[in-house]
Amino acid sequence: MSIGRFLVIIPTYNELENISNKAPLVLSQDHRIDILIVDDASPDGTGDLAESMAAEEPRIHVLHRPKKDGLGRAYLDGFNWGISRQYDLLFEMDADISHPPAALPLMIEAAQTADVVIGSRYLHGRVTVSNWPMKRLLISYFGSWYARTITRMPVRDATGGYNCWHRRVLETVKLDRVRSNGYAFQIELKFRAWCKDFSLTEIPILFTERDSGESKMSKKIVREAVWRVWWLKILQIFRQL
Fold first, then answer.
1. Which domain does 109 fall in, by range?
2. pTM score above 0.90
């Protein structure tokens, strides 16, 4: 399998303190990696900083969106940008320190034999999370268990946001039909890929809580994930995925 061009998509909203540190670490992992920063009109100037970085580094690109419009829609816009430019692998990655850039080479290697690679926090009976408040950990862990139980999808970290997708997967799952926008987006996209018989594999990562900026988690996002899983199951039953 020949895999030659990679795109790491990093959605941002008020990530000024993080993005300048994260981008060089990502680019240093493999010379075939480009970065797309998808900024939702950050009032702290993240978008302007991203433009300055792109002016100095041709492997950095910026997609500006007019307002804060959710994680899922930011990734969908990023995927469509990357698909139109024929990138072979497209990655989801947080702007903060949560998703370790050092795992990118391992994900690229795993993508040689799998269609989707998931950076997992809950593999082999272990929880590999650092400095996370217990409440957040419980929401995430039981959220993945809840999604796995209802959908029967064989993924330990269904809610995880550090993922690698072959372009052909994203071209097949009909991105225009994806409706989730918060962390349910991560469940929905994996589930749609699994229902299309693409192979999903997980590799262990150490997830580290951010040390700057603010988490985007909210009660609304949690509620969406709770009911959206049942919606996905119903779509599967009626063969609408």
1. 6-237
2. yes
